[in-house]
Amino acid sequence: MSTEVECGQPGCCDANPAEAPIVGDIRRALAALDPTHVSVVDVSDGCGSKLQLVVVSAAFEGKPLLAQHRLVNTALKDHLTTVHAFTLKTYTPTKWAKVNV
């Protein structure tokens, strides 16, 4: 699985993962979907209250977008209580290969 972790503060997540603990929590929770790619971008300047997520998983194959998002929301239900807002994009590996050229 490839994983991107970014936040609003340069080097924050790489230098000190404790500054954005929600990012690691989300990655671990999404492991249940066996993703091939996860991108978690903290757009709240490092506090973890606003996130952009991209999740690529074969678990989404044959499922409509709403069902894909429900899978992610279910996996993250215990972690979203501290998140003010998040955007979510889900892809199957085939669709990801087409959009991530």
Describe the structure.
The protein is α/β, with parallel strands linked by helices. The protein has one domain (2-99): GMP Synthetase, Chain A, domain 3 (2-Layer Sandwich). It contains 4 helices and 4 strands, in the order βααββαβα. The protein has a 4-stranded mixed sheet with strand order 1-2-3-4. The longest helix has 12 residues, at 65-76. The two termini are 18 Å apart. InterPro entries: BOL2, BolA, BolA-like_sf. This is BolA-like protein. It comes from Chrysophaeum taylorii.
CATH superfamily: BolA-like
Secondary-structure-derived class: alpha/beta
Q: Percentage of helical residues?
A: 25-40%
**What's the alpha carbon Rg, rounded to whole Å?**
13 Å
Q: Say how many strands there are.
A: 4
User: From the 3D coordinates, which CATH architecture would you assign?
Assistant: 2-Layer Sandwich
The whole-number mean of residue pLDDT values reads: 82
Q: Distance N terminus to C terminus?
A: 18 Å
- SSE string, helix = H, strand = E? EHHEEHEH
Helix tally equals 4
- Please identify the top-level CATH class: Alpha Beta
Strand order of the largest sheet: 1-2-3-4
| Whole-number count of domains | 1
Low-confidence stretches are 1-19
Q: What sort of overall outline do the alpha carbons produce when their principal axes are compared? A: globular
The largest sheet is: 4 strands, mixed
Strand content: 25-35%
Produce a short descriptive summary.
The chain has 101 residues and is an alpha/beta fold. The protein has helices at residues 12-15, 21-30, 65-76, 93-99, and strands at 2-7, 35-42, 50-57, 85-91. It has a single domain, classed as BolA-like (GMP Synthetase, Chain A, domain 3).
